[in-house]
Specification:
The chain is built from five helices and 16 strands. By secondary structure, the chain is α/β, with parallel strands linked by helices.
């Protein structure tokens, strides 16, 4: 689990981190095996005392869980969290504060839990378990593809978009792989989550990787939400860094996915809703 803590009080941040690690360790060795066990391995943990510093780091690092203090100087933790969710819609956020005044304000942004300082260990445990359930539910979701080469389980969080070409379905992933199978979009409806949207009879996009909606097109990139110094110009419906051959295992820089007139209004509303989460 990759954790970030943002609080302008460094002592409070360090104390919270110690509480988290001790709680995870205690749960791991608990004799009550019926209790849910927190993920004992924290693969990355970063502490930030400034919202701009955290936001800059989040452009290149992906965190599973963020503890965000609501009072962070000029920018509130709620404003920061809205920006973070635009970069990483699947980021789980736990707010904490020494004041009750913000209790209702936190409901303006998607979050897991609100903790009052000083943080009570039992409430921290409840918050961590709730966040872990959300994280695992995202990680455990796959799209299963069967073809002549075998059966493949593709994590939803790695899919850029789905493309239909006659009876063939092509699943394009962030690492440049293209998985092919025969079928219809309706065959995959139950496997896709709310971040996927059909914007054309031939395309379903993953809003997680959409950086922009313009000229009746969604711009899709594995680097969506990150700053790309010099993106290549688009050619036709797609741009590849291997010379433009979509048949190879292309590593995409940016894709322009068309939005048909039929889906345009719904596409705009759905994309805005996703950005406002």
């Amino acid at each position: 689990m990759r954790i970030a803590i943002c609080d302008d009080d460094s002592a409070a941040s360090n104390a919270l981190y110690q509480d988290i690690t001790q709680l995870a360790e205690k749960q791991l060795h608990s004799s009550q095996k019926s209790e849910p066990v927190l993920a004992p391995v924290i693969t990355r943990s970063d502490i930030f005392t400034d919202s701009d510093e955290f936001l800059f780091a989040a452009e290149t690092e992906h965190y599973d869980l963020a503890f965000v203090d609501i009072e962070l100087g000029e920018e509130s933790g709620i404003q920061l969290s809205n920006k973070l969710l635009r970069l990483h819609p699947d980021l789980q956020i736990i707010f904490f504060s020494g004041y009750d005044d913000y209790y209702l304000d936190v409901y303006n942004v998607d979050h897991v839990y609100f903790l009052k300082k000083p943080v009570d260990p039992e409430r921290l445990k409840t918050a961590l378990l709730a966040a872990q359930r959300r994280i695992l539910s995202l990680q455990d979701k796959f799209l299963t593809i069967a073809n002549k080469q075998g059966v493949f389980r593709i994590a939803l969080q790695d899919i850029l978009f789905l493309e239909k070409s006659r009876r063939l379905i092509l699943v394009h992933t962030a690492d440049g792989e293209i998985y092919k199978t025969y079928g219809k979009f309706s065959d995959f409806e139950d496997s896709l989550n709310s971040l996927f949207f059909q914007c054309h009879t031939s395309y379903i996009v993953n809003f997680r990787f959409v950086s922009e909606m313009t000229d009746r097109k969604f711009l899709v990139s594995p680097h969506a939400g990150l700053h790309i110094a010099a993106p290549r110009p688009l050619h036709g419906a797609a741009a590849y860094d291997n010379g433009g051959d979509p048949g190879d295992d292309a590593h995409y820089l940016e894709q322009a996915i068309p939005i048909s007139k039929t889906y345009y209004t719904q596409a705009k509303e759905a994309f805005l809703k996703c950005l406002m989460r």
